[in-house]
TrEMBL record:
InterPro entries in UniProt: Acetyltransf_17 (IPR041380), Acetyltransferase_Eis (IPR051554), Acyl_CoA_acyltransferase (IPR016181), Eis_dom (IPR025559), GNAT_dom (IPR000182), SCP2_sterol-bd_dom_sf (IPR036527)
Domain of life: Archaea
Database matches in PROSITE patterns: GNAT
Protein name from the UniProt record: GNAT family N-acetyltransferase
Any one Pfam family match given in the protein's UniProt record, by short name: SCP2_2
Amino acid sequence: MVDYRPIPDERDVFHEYRSYAFQPEEGLPAYDSDEHETLRDTLGSRRGLYASEAADDADPRCVCRHYWLESHVRGDRHRTAGLASVSTPPEYRRRGHVRQLLARSLAEYRDRDVRFSVLWPFRYRFYRQYGWDTANRVRTHEFEPSLLSVATGETADGGRFRRLEADEYDRLESVYATHAERYGLALERDPDWWRARVFGGSDRDPFVYAYERDGDVAGYLVYTMAGEQGDRRMDVSELVFADREALLSLLAFCYRHESQVQRARFELPADVPIRDLVRDPDEIETTISDGPMVRIVDVAETLSALSYPDRDAGLTIAVEDPLVDWNDGTFALKVADGTATCERTDDGTDAADVRLEIGALSQLVVGTRSVRDLERTGRLEAGDSAAPDAFETLEALFPETDVYLGEFF
């Protein structure tokens, strides 16, 4: 019987496994606590899957890290676990260890009343087979910074830019809160997360500039520089703004790097209107890529804890979960007077109003995909004895929303 447990005293092993999985070209790394025990590296909880419960079994079959977070879903904050650094050395691969590690991780999340799990996959197909699915997509725009000259003519004169240090993160909290209210799965950030994950980088720290207006921060951007003189690119990983004027001011700030960089690249939510603002959108190279993945931890508990539109409704949902049995079955959801209850039933899947697997349900719940979209792509179907308005009821309870989790962990 394998044992799943913390690995607080084996950080060199964790570092070795993770390095081999994600940076094998660097060779076998020597572990140096002074080099690797930065604030960024100490965030989260390390876990390992061992062959037995023996205390002297110091050779985990695979490892991972859990970040204990909160994210915004349908107007409320919910406990969310970030899953990262899933690594297995080659001598233990193809034995089902990762599957067991993921199942044990979900069991721990459930014990901690965590509602959602999010991760950045090395391959989407791999994690989709275990019930995670795409949370949102990322739009990347790359172009010459001269295209942003249009922003300079529409900005106010009263604002100013100031580069901030990590200990000044609190200056950004107010405008970030406005941003987080716009997007499902946006994370709540504590001081350590601000310092280590926003102001800190894995190889080098980014620049963080705030746009101040009337003494308050109305927007900010986080960016790094890549390349060399004559072939340099400005990479903007986070662009947060309170209103249109702040957005234009941030873009004008980027334009003023025209003599320093040859290209600018932005990773943004879909609704940031870069292409609509410039005069030459055909000069922008825009690509769409899948972002992180999301998964409901416990169907009954999560659906009971959500906020719903002001509507009394009820339906039964048959869920298929390939990894954990507590989600595999039929659930009765009832919403009345602003309160929801969701309970497992003894009815078979044929008696359910709708049927879908856990990944599709997760996308529906957080707002990534609509009922009609899931139906068109074969991810959602009506039960054999479904109520005539089952899809309409489901759509009313789970309307599509803007979802964006852009920060990598």
